[in-house]
Amino acid sequence: MTQIHRLIALVLFAFAVPAGAAEWHRAATAHFEIYADDDAAEVRARAERLERFDAVLRLVSGINPDQETRPITVFFVRDVETIRRMLGPAFRNAAGFYSPRTAGSLIVAPGRTSWNQEGAMTSETVLLHEYAHHFLLQNFAAAYPPWFVEGFAEFYATSVFNRDGSVTIGGIPLFRVPNLRASEGISAEDLLTTGAIDPRSRTLENFYARSWLLVHYLSFSSSRAGQRARYIAAIEQGQPLEAAAQSAFGDLRAFNAELRRYIDSPIATATVAASSLPVPAVTVAQLSSAEAALIPLRIELMRGVADERKAAFAAQVRAVAAGFPADPNALFVLAEAEGIAGRPDASDEAADALLALVPNHARALLRKARNLEARTGAAGRIAARPLIVRANRADPRDPLPLLAYYRSFRAAGQPAAPEMALDGLLLAVQLAPQVGDLRLVVGAALLKAGEIDAAERVLRPAAYAPHGGSPAEQAQALLVILAAARADAAALPAAAAAAERILVQRLDPA
Fold it and tell me: Three-class SS of residue 223?
């Protein structure tokens, strides 16, 4: 769930520094940056469990355990009710969320839950579910149908961390049992042929339960070995969901009957031995007063500040940052807040102060580039290019400067973006493959440049985003146009024009 910003300001300060809570701590590991208002020992334990979970996912999926990735940020807020107030009434059943962003993806999970009955969902279940989403989309970006994205996350969310250091996967989510056994349950045919899901649907709980069941069955059933891979490969090749399902699984009614019988059979699990999992390196530090005060503002900034909130958001940041005039974290958030509120001079003042403390701060350099454009219009993009290049050199694994570099060529009188800029866009997608907005822009840029095959590979995962949305719909439309251009070269100019309209909307808003 990556939307709904309107109510966030009303509740953020309710969990910033709760009365009587432990001091805020940050745990840093190879794959996570974790923030929680808990004691150091508990924050360390959470970080160690997350790293062990990541190691299990890497082992099962065959990823090199030492493969470098950009750490994801995890915030633990007070409870589930806080998260629901953040998201608004449309998401009254949400217990946490994952927000894939080009600037840095984040997970917000509850520090505790109020469900005390046996088998209830726990805060750790929520966290593992959301991180499984990130792991899948970060490492295996593809055109996944919604049931697989959610079923994969549900499958691993029930992982159990045993006392001997081993981890057991595949357990039944007991909180889904009523939906698993419901007579009106969603059929396998419905799952395999369904596009985007509506998070407000009354059948959502049923959907999650059946998706778990389908992933579990295909993971443990020897008679169906390889069929899931063939199904997803067919979708990747452009086959409609129904055709892909029938070619991979055969008679879907028979498959559904199999799945119903599976519900009543003994459910298998698998255990990964502790000796197979590396001992994670974890560094824990207490946050400064400035860092703790900025937590709610950082969450809102990372998720994306709604247009109607930008002025008020900047005022809130200004008030907090005034107490910490020499703190790099406060200066960064202040520079961003003033910039998005349309105050480039004030933003530059904060960015310059930050650069005086941290001369190669990539995001401060990038903010100054944006401020230059804000003052001088599209022509400012050309003048800002040296700042963008400096930002890229300061952090080569940050996708934002790569996107900004391409955008700098979209100024009046500029030639088409050079091949180097397009290569940078492809690298940006490799660094943030889970971000649908980024895939849409890069796919459109490649299509405009006539790189049809590359554009299709980039766009297809965005088109199958499980919760749909504007980027998914636009990616689907571009794929239709792209197919026409592939069939008839005379349609290529129309495809390029459609791609340009996307780029104008996403990169050159009025």
Answer: helix
> What's the N-to-C CA distance of the chain in angstroms?
27
What residue type is 156 in one-letter code? Answer: Y
pTM of the model: 0.89
Q: Are strands 25-28 and 32-36 parallel, antiparallel or unpaired?
A: antiparallel
Provide the residue count of the chain: 510
Q: State both tokens at 78.
A: 């007070």
- 3-class SS letters over 358-390: CCCCHHHHHHHHHHHHHHHHHHHHHHHHHHHHH
275 pLDDT above the threshold of 60: yes
Tokens 């400096």 belong to 390
Q: What tokens does 315 get?
A: 């005022």
| H helices, E strands: number in the chain | 23, 9
Give the tens place of pLDDT for each residue, 292-337: 999 989 999 998 999 999 999 999 999 999 999 999 999 999 999 9
Asked if 35 contacts 74 with a C-beta cutoff of 8 angstroms, the reply is: yes
Average pLDDT of the residues in 7-24: 42
3-class state of residue 254 by DSSP: helix
Main-chain phi, psi angles of 24, to 5 degrees:
-70, 140
CATH 3.40.30 assigned to domain 1-142+278-300? The reply is yes
Cβ distance 351 to 377 under 8 Å? no
* 358 token code pair: 């941290």
Ranges in the chain annotated CATH 3.40.30: 1-142+278-300
* Contact indicator for 424, 446 with CB cutoff of 8 Å: no
* CB of 300 closer than 8 Å to CB of 8: yes
Q: Which residues pair with 286 in a beta bridge?
A: 25
User: What is the strand order of the sheet 270-272 is part of?
Assistant: 160-161, 167-169, 270-272
Q: Is the pLDDT of residue 145 over 80?
A: yes
Residue 183 has a pLDDT of: 62
Q: Which of 395, 393, 385, 390 is nearest to 417 (CA)?
A: 385
Rounded CA separation 409/482 (Å): 24
pLDDT at 10: 28
Contact present, 318 and 337 (Cβ < 8 Å)? yes
Query: 244: helix, coil or strand?
Result: helix
**pLDDT tens-place string over residues 72-106:** 999 998 777 777 777 766 666 677 889 999 999 99
pLDDT at site 251 = 93
